[in-house]
């Protein structure tokens, strides 16, 4: 009897220890996931001039207050011309709605980038419209959501923030051109020496040297938790160059039956080619896809008039 009781106590002790170990393991895993995907990490970047660091707060998705209407989708000044058009193709379940912004600037410095809350790091997000408003942007689109991953080459406004080359990328240059390239084939120092002011690390490349680059049959940007292949029809954001200082931006709405199903990468590449882009690059899409103009959101993110917080934007601003 005593032997049986001792055995029972020992079994209970073993189960208790196993339970504690399991709970500690789950807690560690939960914290690890939260640390990677939820908790903000502001990274300090040391440049030749100074160390830069800022703090920020999370920005939840909020309902867009007003959408722009087509009667005010034009902007003209001595230095910048912007014209936005809404395009619809197909019908019924095959209906696609997208927005094309044709932008010409006199100086390449009018095309800039900005971080959410003016901070570089992971899990720091803010709505595209809020980042644009904070930077007095005339026009803006979401960027590459660099904060969702910890690799890639990230140069913004002439500063190297991250230097871990892994994928095909896009470079904006101070001569008004944009170039698609392989991050593993050129160093950040060489990019800066060539006049690169900003890089974007998402992809894939849609058009290079005037030609559609691939059939896009199996595209995966990274291996992060929650990542999925992106070649199917989805909301999209893309940037292209027609000529130096002449850009085209496309934002495709999607996942809303009767309004827009989204585009495949092949369809997006064909649209960019049809617009005359000689270089074109796919940026972060899905709920991130947002076009902002003159204080308002032009498109309808996910068919809900609801923006999703992003890490960064590209925007146009007067000098």
Structural summary, described in words:
This protein has 319 residues and is of the alpha+beta class. It has 2 domains: 39 residues; 261 residues, no CATH class. 18% of the residues lie in helices and 32% in strands. It has 4 helices and 22 strands. The strands form 6 sheets. It has an 8-stranded antiparallel beta sheet with strand order 4-5-6-18-17-19-15-16, covered by helices on one side. Strands 7-22-9-20-21 form a 5-stranded antiparallel beta sheet, covered by helices on one side. Strand 15 and strand 16 form a beta hairpin. The longest helix has 36 residues. The chain is globular, with a radius of gyration of 23 Å. About 10% of the residues have low confidence.
Keywords:
8-stranded antiparallel sheet; 5-stranded antiparallel sheet; 2 domains; 319 residues; alpha+beta; 4 helices; globular; 22 strands
Helix-strand makeup class:
alpha+beta
Going across the major beta sheet, what is the strand order? 4-5-6-18-17-19-15-16
Q: Radius of gyration in whole Å, from Cα?
A: 23 Å
For the record, give the distance between the C-alpha atoms at the N and C termini, rounded to a whole number: 89 Å
How many domains make up the coordinates?
2
Mean pLDDT score: 84
Low-confidence stretches: 28-37, 46-66
Which of globular, elongated, flat, extended, rod-shaped describes the shape? Answer: globular
Protein name: Exopolysaccharide biosynthesis protein
InterPro entries: EpsL_firmicutes, NAGPA
Organism: Paenibacillus algorifonticola
Domain Phosphodiester glycosidase: 135-316
Set out the fold topology.
Blueprint: H1 2-37, E1 41-42, E2 45-46, E3 51-52, E4 74-76, E5 80-89, E6 96-105, E7 111-115, E8 121-122, H2 128-134, E9 139-142, E10 152-156, E11 159-164, E12 168-173, E13 178-182, H3 188-193, E14 196-200, E15 205-208, E16 211-212, E17 236-243, E18 246-252, H4 265-274, E19 279-282, E20 291-293, E21 296-297, E22 312-316
Antiparallel strand pairs: 1-8, 2-3, 4-5, 5-6, 6-18, 7-22, 9-20, 9-22, 10-11, 12-13, 12-14, 15-16, 15-19, 17-18, 17-19, 20-21
